[in-house]
Amino acid sequence: MTHRLCRLWRICFFLLTLGSPPSWQVRDAQGVQHWRRVKVNLEEHVLVPTFPSGLDTYDEYVQDYISKIATNQMPQSRPLWDLHLIKFPTSKAEGTLVFRIHHSLGDGYSLMSALFNCLQRADDPSLPLTFPSGSKPKTKPTKNGMVRMISKVSSSLSMCVNTVRDFGWSVLKSNLLEDDKSPVRSGTPGVEFLPITLSSIEFSLDDIHKIKTKIRGTINDVICGIVFLGIRLYNEAASEEARAKAANVTALVLLNTRDIGSYSYQPLSEMTKPDTKSPWGNHFAFIHVGIPSCKDPMIADPLQFLLKAKKIIEKRKNSLAVVLTGKFLEMIRRLKGPEAVAKYVHATLRNTSTAVTNVVGPIEQMIIAGHPVRSFHFTLVGGPQSLTLGVVSYMGKLKLAMGVEKGFIDPKLLTSCMEKSFERISQAAIGVKP
């Protein structure tokens, strides 16, 4: 590699949902599917694109290349992953490394664990990577025993009601109820096969933490609030029709169902143990979150909007719907196989407007093969939606990657609306303009 390639690189991680992998799975005597061990030819998996020489930056070439491979189906003739080594500078980095992995190999937690086990800290490779905490501030319990008992009974009843409502609504949304068509949802059949445009934006993680403390919520509450307000601002700016502005918009928030306590990644040796709490594979569920409506998002109180979104999310969390959804998906897998689960999740995505997936990245700068990693992005691609959102934290920043249906959603306008959303919420919550 040349000297300039030894400078800062960026990593893009795509979790692909297109296609199915039947040729690489076999069934045992009990009918359970397992991966078939095969010989890997690295030349088929490590791809190095070439562009015209002599340019100072290759932003457009790299952007077009990444957008193209994001929607390409993987060949069924080989294992379902590839690595794209783009040795051309952009305005953001000296080179770009793109990991493209099929979702059937594992969920975001599994694949991030594998990736982070291959990377090292730039400041001291002998030390492990560390990750931020996203826990909610603890509240002091009341000293009155009677009040505490009444509170527990009330909470239990509320959980039962929320569980029935949320799980029932989730099943209906997955099978019968579709979101309205809107500026962020075209509703085009086969939208997952259409070209997409990828863009990204970053926020200060320190400001996110301050906002989280202000509303006594979680990092996820703040992320969803920013994204939801950004979508409402985009709907307002992109359409003059009142119906489109007030469209029913539902976000599918994907959640890790492993019992891991504080968010940390485990060594691969630990994840493959039979009794581990953080097993390898696909162990996720989802919650449907209706994006709050407001008459005019341009003048609405952003803090009140954030608190409204937080309240909706807390109601979803204060139920066993997520657990039941995870058990339901596992039951489908055992009875009908992983293809049936994939079809169910596909239908769930198709009936909603956007998916929001969030993974935690390291606090310290990473290096890969001695090359510092300047930027790191993670997102889901290949889903039947016009808009997908992937969030990852890295080096004190929160990276939001957006995949949008090309020619339908204006990526520059959407980015501007997300920036405006973060700016307005920051000013309202902590009095600081980013």
Structure notes:
The chain is an alpha/beta fold. It folds into 2 domains: 3-121, no CATH class; 157-197 and 205-358 and 393-430, 2-Layer Sandwich (Chloramphenicol Acetyltransferase). Helix content is 37%, strand content 21%. It has 12 helices and 15 strands. It has helices at 42-45, 59-71, 108-116, 145-175, 205-215, 219-238, 242-245, 268-271, 302-317, 321-336, 338-350, 411-430; strands at residues 9-16, 25-27, 33-35, 46-47, 81-86, 95-102, 120-121, 196-204, 250-256, 284-290, 354-359, 366-368, 371-381, 387-394, 397-405. A 7-stranded mixed beta sheet has the order 4-5-6-1-13-12-7, sandwiched between helices. A 6-stranded mixed beta sheet has the order 8-15-14-11-9-10, sandwiched between helices. It is globular. In the N-terminal section; belongs to the long-chain O-acyltransferase family. Residues 33-223 form the O-acyltransferase WSD1-like N-terminal domain.
H-E string: EEEHEHEEHEHEHHHEHEHHHEEEEEH
Helix content bin = 25-40%
Strand order of the largest sheet: 4-5-6-1-13-12-7
Task: Give me the CATH architecture of the largest domain, please.
Answer: 2-Layer Sandwich
The CATH topology of the largest domain turns out to be Chloramphenicol Acetyltransferase
Q: What would the principal axes of the Cα set say about the shape?
A: globular
Name of the CATH first level of the largest domain: Alpha Beta
Count every helix, treating DSSP H or I runs of 4 or more residues as helices. Answer: 12
Proportion of residues in extended strands: 15-25%
Q: Roughly what is the average pLDDT, rounded to an integer?
A: 84
The total number of structural domains is: 2
Q: Based on DSSP secondary structure assignment, what is the total number of beta strands?
A: 15
Compute the separation of the termini in Å: 38 Å
Signal peptide: 1-19
GO cellular component, one term: plasma membrane
Protein name: O-acyltransferase WSD1-like isoform X1
Pfam families: WS_DGAT_C, WS_DGAT_cat
